[in-house]
Automatic annotation (TrEMBL):
Family the entry assigns: Belongs to the IspF family.
2-C-methyl-D-erythritol 2,4-cyclodiphosphate synthase domain residues: 3-156
Subunit structure and binding partners: Homotrimer.
Function noted in UniProt: Involved in the biosynthesis of isopentenyl diphosphate (IPP) and dimethylallyl diphosphate (DMAPP), two major building blocks of isoprenoid compounds. Catalyzes the conversion of 4-diphosphocytidyl-2-C-methyl-D-erythritol 2-phosphate (CDP-ME2P) to 2-C-methyl-D-erythritol 2,4-cyclodiphosphate (ME-CPP) with a corresponding release of cytidine 5-monophosphate (CMP).
Binding-site positions, a divalent metal cation: 10, 12, 44
Superkingdom of source: Bacteria
Taxonomic lineage from the root: Bacteria, Pseudomonadati, Pseudomonadota, Alphaproteobacteria, Rhodobacterales
Organism of provenance: Tateyamaria omphalii
UniProt catalytic activity: 4-CDP-2-C-methyl-D-erythritol 2-phosphate = 2-C-methyl-D-erythritol 2,4-cyclic diphosphate + CMP
Gene designation: ispF
EC number(s) reported in the record: 4.6.1.12
Cofactor needs: a divalent metal cation
Keyword Metal-binding in annotation: yes
Name of the protein described by the UniProt record: 2-C-methyl-D-erythritol 2,4-cyclodiphosphate synthase
Enzyme category, top tier: lyase
Amino acid sequence: MDIRLGNGFDVHAFGPGDHITLCGVQVPHDKGLIGHSDADVGMHTVTDAIYGALARGDIGQHFPPTDPRWKGAASDIFLRHAVALAADMGFEISNVDCTLICEAPKIGPHAAQMRAVMAGIMELGQDRVSVKATTSERLGFTGRGEGIACIATAALIKP
Ligand SMILES: Nc1ccn([C@@H]2O[C@H](COP(=O)(O)O)[C@@H](O)[C@H]2O)c(=O)n1
Ligand SMILES: C[C@@]1(CO)OP(=O)(O)OP(=O)(O)OC[C@H]1O
């Protein structure tokens, strides 16, 4: 059995808006997130963790931020691509775990829906998809409410 681990990290800055999209879920907020795509920092991070496990580059190499095709794109496109690449290479996703880092919005009330959305895209049981959150105790750029950061780990297996 071939077991691979990958990590992901991403940050998006807050800008004007009245909601953000995180892990495929629209969360009401007094700000939006800035990005070339829909700026779904959670889904980007999980996508990068899968690319990392496969040693197949990163999200910007597959979907360049200079390419107008991805302007405003819903980020499930990127995650679906990483999942398909894993399958093409003979890997199954075992589980993913991500942690969103922000003072606000509160992630807890939305975490179950986020897990369900990403589990659906990855065709995994929800017990294999974890979404957690932490503040950074008001320290640093997340602490000042300037943006949201996310870290993720993905485990892939080739039976
Ligand atoms: N944006 C956030 C941040 C935190 N949570 C939840 O609150 C708990 C306590 O956070 P600390 O940073 O003070 O440790 C954390 O474990 C999360 O359950 C959240 O839902 N959304
Ligand atoms: C997702 C892409 C798609 O163009 O755009 P952004 O929304 O800017 O997101 P980021 O995480 O900065 O990285 C890479 C890009 O590939």
